[in-house]
Fold this protein.
Amino acid sequence: MDPIIKADDVAYPILQVPDLALQEKFLVHFGLHVAELTDDALYMHCEGGQPFVHETRLGPKKFVGSAFLALSMSDLEKLSGTDSFGDIEEIKGPGGGFKVFGQDPDGLGVEVVFGRKERKRNSSLEPEGMNVGGAETETFQRLNRAKRFQKGAFPQIKRYGHYALHCSDVEASLDWYNAHLGIIATDIYKAPPADEETPVGGIFARLDRGEKPADHHTILMTTTELSNGQAGLNHVSFEMVNIDDVFMGHEILAKHGYEPEWGIGRHYLGSQIFDYWRSPFGQVHEHQTDGDVFDNSVPPQIVNVADLGNPAEPERGASQWGPAMNVDTFGDERGL
């Protein structure tokens, strides 16, 4: 059965916290800029042309949901006619446009938007070239040009990239996101022996953009094992302009005393260079870059988690390089 629509990208996460001033301070250090601040909402933009890539509402701390970009107004009309989504409304935040709001099987919010007015970019979003590979000068990306970043500069964020959820039933969640937004599985991971009888531990799922490339995952759906049985947010992730921005962001956030969660390292599933940090409210935000992309011709892969990492030195949450997860990484309900 064909999905109702096929979303084209993610747009912004929607979080809720009791102190917008404290949230603004953290997000500025994280690399975002204020697009608009009202009495009850904070909108932050990045270096790109999106009117905003992060929305925070005032209230008791919780994860409200995440927004997706539709390809047409007709897509919003199709969703608004289903049981899962409400009526079409105008977006109150920067850039205007229209949205429909719904809930997934765990009651987590899903906003689908169209018609937002773009803003002028802060930068070209073109990363500085890397002098790697062969020894011949024609293979160099940066010739007769030095690479320079201002010491202590804030990191540059390109876009909102993905988010991860704790789900009560990961397979039911994938079915729902596929039926409504066209989300498809990339990697389905299981514990050994990873056969048909082994329960699914999590699913990395991506947008179906046809022949156009899509990130390895737009949503990671994982179990509630690490969140005391509660469905909700695991983390939100933002793509950086340069690899250097991941390291610059790490330096800035450490300097200002924020709580590191995990990183810097390179993932196996998705291949991103990653760095995770806790906000003052416990909600995990990730800097990432250099991830895998796929078109819709690549079928889902079953991944045995025992195959990730060095079998001689098994570690929790193995990465290609970088620190292992400790027992507390993503290990409570603070970010929900």
The chain has one domain: 9-117+154-307. The radius of gyration is 20 Å. The first strand starts at residue 9 and ends at 17.
